[in-house]
């Protein structure tokens, strides 16, 4: 398969700096070589977004900080993703903060619109990212990006790349959630997303949750996987912007990627929030490489 690695050194969506260096850390961890070793042909795109320092930009709207540069960057990403997916190739987006999902989903949705396919989203994240400008406690767009993709929030975000909803919230499935704001929790319930929290995993067992996730996606034609490294316990992924104890283990995350790959429906993905400033010997970026490989077909035997 042709895999296009799209580097998005965007950290305007978050409060803590450093995730803009995530793509280079994943590159240094050997993403290209790893994917080629399992039979893929890779194409690297480093020119989609040229970052200017966040300190030199004005935040603007306090409830949607750095809205303009984020919209500009994500429109460019969406265009690239649409071109890649229209040709039947696989875009693998490396963030950056999670606001890049706005562009990834907009591009995939544009292709799906032309082909009449239904999109599902596997959102592996400690957080919901389902706030809007009215519920956000921080004003950081990485906490509003999925709600916007589902049609909720500011028009500049909901209508990014093309007008209207990019994914039906009833086709969104969360895994690993453990830190949801009150406002976004209410919106998530009203929108009808499916959520498997860490408590659900503890109660039901990880194998049961994985099987339920695979069953959930039987109703869609294509799947976008959005993987935030903060879903992992900091013991396994210390290099991320908002580390929270009690997350997934590395083995659980790798298995989830391997299992979702067996559906044959995964057509695009992103791995975000690798922050090498906070990492230890680049172990978070190395794990990101292995997660991508499992998602793209690698098995242990």
TrEMBL record:
Its EC number is 3.5.3.1. InterPro entries: Arginase (IPR014033), Ureohydrolase (IPR006035), Ureohydrolase_dom_sf (IPR023696), Ureohydrolase_Mn_BS (IPR020855). One of its GO terms (biological process) is urea cycle. Keywords: Arginine metabolism, Hydrolase, Manganese, Metal-binding. Binds 2 manganese ions per subunit. One of its GO terms (cellular component) is cytoplasm. Mn(2+) binds at residues 98, 125, 127, 129, 228, 230. One of its GO terms (molecular function) is manganese ion binding. Pathway: Nitrogen metabolism; urea cycle; L-ornithine and urea from L-arginine: step 1/1. Its cofactor is Mn(2+). The keyword Hydrolase applies. Belongs to the arginase family. NCBIfam families: rocF_arginase. This is Arginase.
């Amino acid at each position: 398969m042709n895999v296009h690695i799209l580097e998005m050194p965007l950290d305007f969506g978050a409060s803590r700096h450093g995730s803009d260096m995530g793509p280079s850390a994943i590159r240094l961890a050997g993403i290209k070589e790893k994917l080629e070793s399992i039979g893929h042909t890779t194409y690297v795109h480093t020119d989609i977004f040229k970052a200017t320092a966040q300190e030199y930009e004005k935040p603007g709207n306090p409830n949607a900080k750095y809205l303009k540069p984020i919209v500009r960057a994500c429109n460019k990403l969406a265009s690239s993703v649409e071109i890649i997916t229209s040709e039947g190739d696989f875009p693998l987006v490396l963030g950056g903060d999670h606001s890049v999902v706005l562009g990834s989903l907009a591009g995939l949705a544009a292709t799906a619109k032309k082909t009449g396919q239904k999109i599902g989203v596997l959102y592996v994240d400690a957080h919901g990212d389902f706030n809007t400008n009215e519920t956000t406690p921080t004003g950081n767009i990485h906490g509003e990006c999925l709600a916007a993709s589902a049609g909720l929030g500011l028009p500049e975000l909901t209508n990014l790349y093309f007008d209207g909803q990019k994914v039906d919230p009833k086709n969104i499935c969360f895994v690993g959630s453990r830190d949801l704001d009150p406002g976004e929790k209410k919106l998530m319930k009203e929108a009808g997303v499916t959520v498997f929290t860490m408590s659900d995993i503890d109660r039901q067992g990880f194998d049961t949750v994985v099987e339920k996730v695979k069953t959930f996606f039987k109703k869609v034609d294509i799947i976008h996987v959005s993987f935030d490294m903060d879903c992992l316990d900091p013991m396994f992924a210390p290099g991320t912007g908002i580390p929270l104890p009690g997350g997934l283990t590395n083995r659980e995350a790798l298995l989830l990627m391997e299992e979702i790959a067996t559906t044959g429906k995964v057509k695009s993905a992103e791995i975000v929030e690798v922050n090498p400033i906070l990492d230890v010997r680049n172990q978070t970026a190395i794990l990101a490489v292995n997660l991508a490989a499992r998602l793209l077909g690698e098995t242990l035997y």
